[in-house]
Amino acid sequence: MATQLPRLLPLLLFLPFFHIAASTSPSGLHPVVLLPDTTCSQLEARLTDAYVPPTPQCAARHKDAGGRWFRLWKNTTELDDPAVAPCVADQLRLVFDHVAGDYRDVPGVETRVLHFGSTRGFLADEPADRSARAATRSPTLIIIVKSSHGLYMSRNRCMGRLVEALEEVGYRHGENLFGAPYDFRQSPAALGQPCRAFSRYRQRLRALVEHASSANGDRPVVLVSHSEGGYFALEFLNRSPLPWRRRHIKHFSIKIAGMYHAGVISDGVALERLISEILRESFVQDSKKVDYRRVAQL
Ligand SMILES: *[C@@H]1O[C@H](CO)[C@@H](O)[C@H](O)[C@H]1NC(C)=O
């Protein structure tokens, strides 16, 4: 039983959420869309002739690339290599386009989020995710692992344990379980400021939620976010019309809100107030113990 506990823990933590999700719809589960933490969304890039590498060494790395897509984020093999890391950093940069008033990729670098719609791409492929795996074995984290917060954080990195727990209760990838990875460099801009990347993300997430709902007997969707994913989800919800939210969103559940989230709350309809309350609570509790069981009722 002791060895079972870590496996069961995410399930226990989320039990009230499953209860709500399942109890309102005895014939089936509400579809779930997960928004992971910052570093969990994977980015691919390809270079065009317009790209000017910062050094000859960086230029040499891509001389045979031929416009092919490659993993830009996250590849720890490259990030750990002092000769390569500056080349990666250069390609990961965003530049401010004064004409558009918006941030965009460096000229000559095109990027895209890997596996939008799925949770499959949340964690980098081997060997790129070895840092995440190694982290769970580090002495510092073993100490943190002793608290339930840390146990959740390390074992459930990029929502891996949550995905497994959901599968154990009948969720299936692409049927009623979806992922909405995002470009973590392109946080939502303030209202009224252009942010093409986030506008595109909102369109895609909206289409994903509508698809998830219609493919599941029009049952509304449960959005579950972790850390910065909560910021993206919250901004997505805040900028979606209330009738749309009522029709398509069942709950919004936030796991560990970052401190900057408090800044995006605006006064207004009940949803915002409620989420604001939960965020404040999570924020206050973050340093102690987050109550993962809190689920926002829309
Ligand atoms: C990470 O980078 C190494 C070295 O450039 C490369 O061999 C490997 O294929 C990359 N991993 C991924 C997932 O692209």
UniProtKB/TrEMBL annotation:
GO BP of this protein: lipid metabolic process
Keywords in alphabetical order: Signal
Highest rank taxon of the organism: Eukaryota
Alphabetical list of InterPro entries matching this protein: AB_hydrolase_fold (IPR029058), LACT/PDAT_acylTrfase (IPR003386)
Organism (species): Oryza sativa subsp. indica
Protein name as annotated: Uncharacterized protein
Pfam families to which the protein is assigned, alphabetical: LCAT
An annotated Gene Ontology molecular function: O-acyltransferase activity
Signal peptide: 1-23
Transmembrane regions listed in the UniProt entry: none
